[in-house]
Design goal:
This protein is mainly alpha-helical and 442 residues long. The chain contains 16 helices and 3 strands.
Length: 442
């Protein structure tokens, strides 16, 4: 519709429309049209505004509604659905208006701003149970890409999963928890527990005032631009030509993931969980299955920097012998033998003999010094050998104790695995019950 033919009338119309929206969003009483309000032939907005005022005042709205629908049925239906929702009178809409205004959804196409606005208002209960069921059916009719990005759905529901989960049985041996065969069941159980907790949070979340949803309008002291969810008002302002260019439209999967993330609106999260329930159930079943994996009977784990093979009956003797040999070879540095002390002792003896043969008793002085040096060198060599032996003994003892402890930790992990699998099965059962129930329509 070309509004340039009557610019003054178009300006007055937009002014009236903006005032009407601000009045509705601020929770005002039944609005009235200004005396200067005039129709613009061929433009859908004037009769749509007339029908809105008539609907809210309880008057007959058939004639202006028919004119508006004839000029632009979709925009008229979208305008009335959103305006009545913002005014807190969403129960006055006709069921057919939602279908006309909403249109079709597709996972490959972006969600239009009007569709998202209706999605939000229906999820928040603006149209009652029938409106929520309508949106749920629209969303359920879309085939979501289930297997393309499972991790993406998990990251939306339970972001920040740790790279390694250390079960209680392996607290003293966290290196065992990094072995893939032992890490996968613990990681799966932890994810399933968090997923179950998130589903419980979504399906049981209540508003602070125990109401199902806050009113679909602002409080008395807040301007229309600060409404809690700006989608309906932004779309209304765009419809009347006062909102400027629309921002980029989001994808269906993107909206669902945003609604599922922690901190999202509880009503939107409940609807999104209902839509992705098959995906969540499939992921939960895979996680529960992963927790039933049989613990490995043979693992290789680094202990004190040496690879030790652990078996149910104890550390592998060959790997332990090789590790002890490396402790002896690498733990003690190469040292000089006892020959410096022996050489000093031999020189001392030679000087002593020469002192009596020459004779020159002064040779006894350096002989005595060399004898003392020889004694010191031999004592230090024996002390170093004793220290090296004690180090090797302590290191090998520690290696054996840690290896034996790791074997007992593996046994404890195996006993814990049964409990973990039972807990995961209970989590899966309760999660399935929760998502089968879906969001409460009432």
């Amino acid at each position: 519709m070309d509004l340039t033919a009557s610019p003054r009338a178009a300006t007055e119309l937009h002014r009236s429309a903006e005032a009407l929206l601000a009045h509705l969003a601020a929770g005002g009483a039944t609005p009235t049209l200004p005396g200067t309000f005039t129709d613009l032939d061929g433009y859908w907005l004037p009769p749509a505004m007339e029908s809105l005022v008539a609907l809210m005042s309880g008057a007959d709205a058939l004639e202006p509604l028919a004119r508006a629908a004839q000029r632009d049925e979709r925009r008229t239906a979208l305008f009335l659905c959103l305006a009545l929702a913002v005014a807190g009178q969403g129960d006055r809409i006709h069921a057919s208006w939602l279908g006309i205004a909403f249109g079709d959804l597709s996972a490959e196409q972006p969600v239009a701003h009007g569709q998202r606005a209706l999605w939000v208002t229906a999820a928040r209960g603006a149209y009652g149970p029938a409106g929520k069921i309508f949106v749920l059916r629209k969303l359920d009719a879309v085939d979501l890409p289930v297997q393309t990005d499972i991790d993406g759905w998990l990251d939306s529901l339970i972001p920040g999963n740790p790279a390694v989960v250390v079960p209680h049985s392996l607290v003293d041996y966290p290196e065992l928890a990094e072995i893939p065969e032992m890490a996968a069941p613990a990681q799966a159980a932890a994810k399933l527990a968090r997923l179950h907790g998130r589903c419980v949070e979504i399906t049981s979340s209540k508003r602070p005032d125990d109401s199902a949803s806050p009113p679909m309008r602002n409080g008395s002291g807040r301007p229309a631009s600060a409404w809690a969810h700006d989608e309906p008002l932004a779309v209304l302002r765009a419809l009347i030509g006062a909102g400027g260019p629309e921002g980029p439209m989001g994808s269906l999967v993107g909206h669902l993931r945003d609604d599922l993330s922690p901190g999202a609106d509880p009503d939107l999260a409940a609807v999104a969980l209902h839509v992705v329930a098959p995906i969540v159930r499939s992921v939960a079943e895979d996680l529960a299955e992963a927790t039933t994996a049989t613990p490995p009977s043979r693992v290789t784990v680094p202990i004190l920097g040496h690879d030790i093979v652990l078996l149910p009956e104890g550390p592998d003797p060959e790997s332990m012998a090789a590790a002890e040999r490396r402790v002896t070879e690498e733990g003690v540095p190469r040292r000089r033998g006892p020959w410096p002390g022996h050489l000093a002792a031999a020189l001392s003896a030679i000087l002593a003999v020469a002192a009596f043969v020459v004779p020159l008793l002064l040779l006894l002085i350096p002989g005595a010094a060399l004898a003392a040096l020889a004694a010191h060198l031999m004592w230090r060599q024996k002390a170093q050998a004793r220290t090296d032996g004690e180090y090797v003994t302590a290191r090998t003892t520690e290696l054996r104790e840690l290896a034996d402890g790791a074997v007992w930790a593996m046994h404890e992990y195996a006993r814990e695995a049964e409990t973990r699998a039972h807990t995961a099965a209970d989590d899966l059962t309760d999660l399935t019950r929760l998502i089968r129930r879906g969001p409460r329509a009432a």
